[in-house]
Structure formats: C-alpha cells, structure tokens
Amino acid sequence: MSNTKVNICNAALGMIGARSIHSFDDATKEAEYCRNFYESQRKALLRQYPWSCAKKRARLAPLSTHPSFGYKHAFPLPSDFIRLFDAGCQRFEVEGREILADADVINLIYIFDNNNEDTWDSMLVECMELQLASKLCKPITGSDAAGQTALSLLTRRLEEARRISAQETQSESMQIEDSVLLGARY
C-alpha cells in the first residue's frame, strides 16, 4: 500500500477514534481539519528532525549583493529549503532566505520540502500519523486524551529515530580517527 496524505490522515483519525475520510475534499469535519492541518504539520515535522529521506545537497554560489557587515557573502537558499543540516563551513548564519558566510562557495546539505509521501521512511510516516493525531484529537473529538497519548508516542519515536540515525551515520570524530590510524598503519 502506498503512502498518501489520505492514508496518513486516516491512520491518525483511527488513533483518536474518528471516522476516516475518502478525500481532503469530503464535506466532513474530519476532512476539513485534515486539509487545514496536514501541510503545516508536515513541514513542522520535517523541521523537527533531519530525516534522511528529506536530505538534499546543493552547491551554492554567492549573490552579487553582499551583506552590510559581519560576513563576506550571501547565498540564496533553495526554494524547497526547510532546515539547514550542514553548510560546509565554520561560520555561517541563516537570515531570511539567505545563508551569510565568509566562504566563497557553500556546499549545503539541507532538509527539503519532501511532499512525496511514497519516498518517506516508515518512521517518518508513523511520526506524521502521530503528529496529526495529536493535533486533530481535540477539535474533532472534543477530548485531548488520545492526542496526549499520540504526542507522548511521537516524542518516543523521534528519540528512536535519533538513535537509529546515530547508528547509520559515521561521526566526524570516527572519520578523523580512521584517517589518522590508517595513515599511520600504511
């Protein structure tokens, strides 16, 4: 089964004991709230954690205009930018829709606005279901009990995602140690 906005919303609605929807265009309060909350909650969740399925790389060239002070160059953020992961330089600052830095080029790793749910990691799908359940519960059911449970589960799942990510990513200290050790050995 493919991941779709409607499937994700229906899983969230099921968690709070609400009726499922067929489309965001249904004439029900469930569809209305899903339609109103989905995009903002998707972007918020993408900002909360550096999901590997939402990472992109871009090499940025500086703009022709320079910052008034503090930095040598300004670089435009990509149009699908959600969150910075790594700017590839020591000193930088995100300001508005630009990255300010002293570097001549920015090798940017960032979280992009991934709205193709079929490309999402299963943990991101589950977190989105929980995020929506926590937001939809009170307005749809009038109670917040299931929403609080979903929020608690979401917090645990995000911690689990951090642990998994740490296992899937080589730390900088290990990269340095490896190169020094290998260099000395050979």
Short description:
This protein is an alpha+beta fold and 186 residues long. 48% of the residues lie in helices and 17% in strands.
What are the defining features of this structure?
48% helix; three-stranded antiparallel sheet; 186 residues; 2 domains; single chain; alpha+beta; 17% strand; 6 strands
Describe this structure in words.
The structure is a single chain. By secondary structure, the protein is of the alpha+beta class. Helices cover 48% and strands 17% of the residues. It is built from five helices and six strands, in the order H-H-E-E-E-E-E-E-H-H-H. It has helices spanning 5-15, 29-48, 122-141, 145-168, 172-185, and strands at residues 55-60, 73-76, 81-86, 92-95, 98-101, 106-112. Strand 4 and strand 5 form a beta hairpin. The model has no long low-confidence stretch (mean pLDDT 92).
What kind of assembly state do the chains in view correspond to? Answer: single chain
Structural class: alpha+beta
Along the chain, the helix and strand elements come as HHEEEEEEHHH
Largest sheet, spatial ordering of strands: 1-6-3
pLDDT < 50 stretches: none
What is the C-alpha radius of gyration, as a whole number of Å? Answer: 21 Å
**How many angstroms separate the termini?**
51 Å
- Rounded mean pLDDT is 92
What count of structural domains?
2
Number of strands: 6
The proportion of residues in beta strands is 15-25%
Question: What summary fits the major beta sheet?
Answer: 3 strands, antiparallel
Q: What would you call the shape?
A: elongated
Q: Figure out the total of helices.
A: 5
Helix content: 40-55%
